[in-house]
Amino acid sequence: MKAFMTNGTADFLKKLEEKHTDKQLWIMSSNSGSLAYYEDEKKSIFASGREYDILIHKGNLQEEGYVVMNNIPVTEEGQPVFEDRFKKRKHEVDMMPGFQAFRLLKPKKGNTYVVFTQWKSVQDFENWKNSDQFKQSHKGQSTKPPAYFADRPFLTTYHMLSDE
Q1: Rg for the chain (alpha carbons), in Å?
Q2: Above pLDDT 90, what percent of the chain?
Q3: How far is CA 89 from the centre of its chain?
Q4: CA 30, CA 133: separation in Å to the nearest integer?
Q5: Mean pLDDT throughout 92-100?
Q6: Does the keyword Nucleotide-binding apply (predicted)?
Q7: Rounded to an integer, what distance in angstroms lies between the CA atom of residue 114 and that of residue 119?
Q8: What is the DSSP string of the chain?
């Protein structure tokens, strides 16, 4: 399965959604703009966008919620180590109150993986970040990034846009 994303204004992305009624597009927004996301086996409907392979898929995306994307640039030689780390994870996040969905997305072009989580609310995400489970799952990670990081990771966050 593949994942596709593109950025644009909310109005433009909603028009795309209206045009492609055969696809389940998830429209979300942040202070810096809006994003459309969908999952499919076929090629992208976006003229310009990003394509990913979904390596790990947990939970179902919801129409309402808070999305956190941890964008992690990974060196080519570090990709197997990075992917293996996630495949061996203990799944504590999946059990947290407010958890809705998790995706590990590998880029088709470039080197920036996306660790995509969806939460019922911002507070649910904050509760995860402050939990013992979070500390346990990130144990052993020093302040120095792993050698397989090509650059500093960064977070992007979004609120789902509903048709209300």
Answers
A1: 16
A2: 75
A3: 16
A4: 27
A5: 90
A6: no
A7: 16
A8: -EEEEEEE-HHHHHHHHHH-TTS--EEEEETTEEEEEEEESS--S-SS-EEEEEEEEEE---SS-EEEEEEEEB-TTTHHHHHHHHHT---TGGGSTTEEEEEEEEESSSSEEEEEEEES-HHHHHHHHTSHHHHHHTTT--SSPPTTBSS--EEEEEEE----
Give the confidence band of 132 by pLDDT, cuts at 50, 70, 90: confident
- Residue 79 tokens, joined: 């990709």
pLDDT in tens, 20-49: 999 999 999 999 899 999 999 999 999 999
- Which residues does residue 103 pair with via DSSP β-bridges, in sequence order? 57, 116
- Report the C-alpha gap between 40 and 102 in whole angstroms: 16
Q: Which CATH number fits domain 45-160: 3.40.50.720, 3.40.50.300, 3.30.70.100, 3.50.50.60?
A: 3.30.70.100
